[in-house]
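Appendix B. Chain record.
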Amino acid sequence: MSRPKVLIIEDCEATRAQLQWSLKEEFDLLGTGDRASAISLAREHNPMVILLDLGLPPHPTDPEEGLGVLREIRKSGSNSKVIVVTGLGQRHHAVRAMRYGAYDFLTKPVDLDLLRLLMQRACWIAGLEQERQTLPPEPADEDEEMIGTSEEIRRVFAAIRKVATTDVPVLIIGESGTGKELTAKAIHERSLRKAGPFVTINCGAIPETLLESELFGHERGAFTGAVQQKKGKVEYAQGGTLFLDEVGELPLPLQVKLLRFLQDQTIERVGGRQPLQVEARIIAATNVDLRDAIAHGRFREDLYYRLGVVTIPVPPLRERGEDVLLMALVFLQRVGEQMRKKVLGFTKEAIQAIQTYPWPGNVRELSNKIRRAVVMAEGAYLTPEDLDLPGAAGETIPTRSSLKEARGRIEADLIAQALTVHHGNLSRVAEDLRVSRTTLYGLLKKYGIRGGRRLGKPVTDSVI
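Structure tokens predicted for this chain:
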């Protein structure tokens, strides 16, 4: 079995030689003493573990050279575990190193037994991460991507792109069911923390008496029933992202502890006395007006500004225009495949009902309506009745209508069905109906079938 590869970045040749001599039996070692060659070796060999001294030439007493190496390694996408081993052991240097993605921080003179133990654990974790990357991706849930072409959702996509490359806290606001958690996941998956955990806690779903323990953990004997030590969600988010859903429901005493964590990245477990350093990004979400909560004394103003360094409003579905029908088409295709039920599309009345319904439950309600409709449908095209939506579900062609009226209804139904079958691709719709695109545009306008012009093939923005 090959030995784990380790890169030692240390400007003192004597110290580097001592480390290499002490660790050579267990690890495959590389060594260097300057920033340029360190970055080059890290990229070329992709070591499992990197031992990094912050004091590198040309200014060995300044940590910026070493921290610069750490930032470059993280920007390159490397999964190497970086253990800082330095004589510049001031607390603020340690905080910065952990913020930039260091696995651990040791000060000189270092205990070689402790260092060896940390390296063994880091190698084990790095090996697990490499195995995970070789596994085939799990199939996504039906709502595991953000879909849309409207200007409203494009603004959300643009905000995600901008904040993903930073480590600032983000506050996502919007009604229930709009996709706030998906927005948070999209930020995490496009950040330098994507290899780390994405940990979610719903602050409004856990009783207040248990919430502190869930967030910050507890020590054995801290309260009745605490028979063993337990880590909290914050600790589990080490190196990754902690998503605080419904943060507006957080009780005031816990808001103080969360504020402290945001300020210095330290927590204390319930019943504990030792501060614990945790390096994790915070993304919060809420469907309540936090400014109103501040005015009524239910939410701390200082915490609001700490959480909302960047605020991303997620629009309700009723404000996203043609995205509603686009998402309905995508959900229909996915649910039909999952249930192995052949449903070709929506009737004209169903399309009108989807476009005019206000969707108070937003994307979540739309997804549930489509799933219900696929289960209940008896025909190849979903009706407003199948969707449990108000609409012209019971209308039929009157027996005494004129030939012109009957032909109009049939034409409108055929166009609506062709639009759903071909996912709004007007060229294919025109070909299927054997009419020109100009004629098709005229028919869409004539029968008031909205959404054809921009629907196209279901797409997602390039960032999502």
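Further analysis of this model is presented in Appendix C.
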